[in-house]
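Worked example

This section walks through a single chain of length 489. The input is the sequence exactly as stored; nothing has been trimmed or padded.
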Amino acid sequence: MAAVDLGSNSFHMLVVQVEDGEVRVVDKLREMVRLGAGLDEQNRIRPDAQRRALACLERFGQRLRGIPPANVRIVGTNTLRKARGAGDFIMEAQRVLGHPIEIISGIEEARLIYLGVAHSMPPRSGRRLVVDIGGGSTEVIIGLDFEPLELESLYMGCVSMSQRFFPGGEIRKSAMQQARLAALLELEGVVRRFRELGWVQSIGASGTAKALRKVAEAEGWSRDGISAQALKKMRKTLLAARHIDQVELKGLSEERRPVFAGGLMVMSALFEALGIEHMEVSDGALREGVIYDQIGRRRGDIRERSVRSLCRRYQVDMEHAERVRGVAQRLMAQVSDCWRLHPEECAGLLGWAALLHEAGLAIAHSQYHRHGAYIAGNSDMPGFSHTEQQVLAALIRGHRRKFPGSVFLALPPDRAGRAERLCILLRIAVALCRSRSTRPLPEIGVECGPDSLFLRFPPGWLEERALTAADLEMEARYLDAIGVELRFA
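Given that input, the structure is written out below as tokens.
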């Protein structure tokens, strides 16, 4: 299995062998790409940063060849979340990698980080506080055992803070004070609820935490991690040097040097705001979390739990939703080869859209498909990537009334065609279940062509159900408008 983490500062790849439930690391690759530093004033990725990133990903892609596609997961974080007009870059990145890229939300990033840390640290009773300072965002999590209890993603990181307060590497006392206040302001809204939960162990993860630990231990300022006193001594050393290039700290690597000051100030603010005196550092983080999440999906997909949680919140009629899901997935099973709908990817998305297709009724009946699409596209849904939520929203938005072709054009090109076909199946399933009868539908034969569907019902069944026949006739007219022929008999 392989996990690739496209971070704002570094790109990481982890390749593992899973045997009898045990995970053994086969290969690790890391390159300092500094994608976050490559954003211009309009948050567009500069050409030189794109070239660096693609050169790295081409090397990663070579290593991924031979690994089954279902066992590879590639996630993009803060910089790809905020980058504007990055569609062409992402398409080219996917081409050189040979695999799709999932842009994940900050909260999903936090969940995966906690999962990676929890599996990488020795078991310990009580809650854990986990902090991961990335290039563009900082994730703060409290969890117990392998379950996160509180998750937060903050808009500050070692790259963004270094660029904002220490441009060109110059270090001034006033800039340090401004950086401290900015970080404390970002933390202000989360401190109270985190402190109320409490924890018995503080853990840092990823590059900034590892760099600070390395310096603290090399200088003899801390043992087995990072201490508040060690951070204070680092700040004094930076102030005395006045420029990052003049800083002499044992253990500080040259590739970490340009973003060290920003990362130090974020960690210092976390220690101050949360009252941390000492922090251990984990070797596991996001990429390890991605691996364990992949393994966990084979035992029970967290995305199913996320969808059912939303269904409960919006009081979805689950009996009806399950019927729609069953019908939609049975239809898909008969057309998956013809329409090239990969079951491992498409069956889940189609089923989850069916479960959520009436969620918008909790807001209003009028235009409830639009309300449901907003819910699916904008809720925090653990386990889902940003793209997967976009697809879910498009399926829900398009499940009734006029077929919204423009919604599917807004999806990534490699997802749009399959999503449109899944939506057609969802629409037909909704039409067939519209009576909300608890009696099971008969076996329905399905034949398909590139742009056609033919539904075959048992003799006499449709004649006895005039409303269902009328619904299908209406659906045929809607689909004809997008060039898809629907016939039934």
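What to look for: The longest helix spans residues 173-197.
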